Amino acid sequence: MATAVDLAQVTYMAPDLDAMEGFLTAFGMTKAEGSDAETLYMRGTGPQRHIHVTRKAEKQRFIGASFEMAALADLEELATFEGSGPVQESTEPGGGYEVIMHTPDGIEIKAIWGREKAEPIFDREPNLFNNIRDKNRVYDPVRAPVAPATIARLGHFVLHVRDHDETMAWFKARFNWLDSDYFLPPGQDGPIVGTFVRLDLGKQLVDHHFALILQSDWVGVHHSAFEVIDLDAVMASHDYLVEQGYASDVGVGRHLLGSQVFDYWKDPFGFRIEHYTDGDVVDADFKPGKFNGTASETTQWGNRPPLEFFQ
């Protein structure tokens, strides 16, 4: 079966690329090579050439997501599925090859392989943390300036879909994904209406999830999430974005499923976007759990999302 090894990018449409660039720069991304008047490519400090793409259009819209695959043979396999495009050269910066597919709801999913890596951007070392037992930071004071967080990588996204089971079957037939946790209706034992999924890289540790597929009465992206270096980056960036006049959405808090310390914002076009750090990592042996609470109960501490957060 074809195996995804990384979440490469999310792609949007918006009418004003300058406004999007201004926000994403304040959020902690860097404009990437290949950007022009029609397409904005933004990157993090890691080796992906770009992790957030915006194409200019009259109306804003979420287009889809791209996954990096383990081998060219994976693309050849995916191209055999009904509705898949052929293996073709990518026109995005970095080149390589791609197969374009669409979920049952029409969301574009790209499988990519062979894209050239970017030279990583220098970032500071994570701040060590002195807990009550382990004093890891000695003669090393923390000095966290109020400034944009430095985005390291794209970590996950959440899709709203019309039919959870159909969409999960579509993804699982094409990608080697594992279930991490299940969403059930609040106070009920079933049915499953959402699934957190992760990469299957055997004994290699991976994020608890890189996507959540959530059944809904509307189709689109709920949010995309980007990992920053540590808790100080989340908090200092929060203050910076407030100073720049951006309105906080939900945060700061700690998730229940995945454990991330999160901070949600809205970009100029209403798309929700998240800073996070300190998420769970697991391997292929991790067993899924079940959650049947409300949106507010997905937060352990901090600013809790409203009940309608996932609606």
TrEMBL record:
Residues 153-278 form the VOC domain. Transmembrane segments: none annotated. This is VOC family protein. It comes from the Bacteria. SUPFAM superfamilies: Glyoxalase/Bleomycin resistance protein/Dihydroxybiphenyl dioxygenase. Pfam families: Glyoxalase (PF00903).
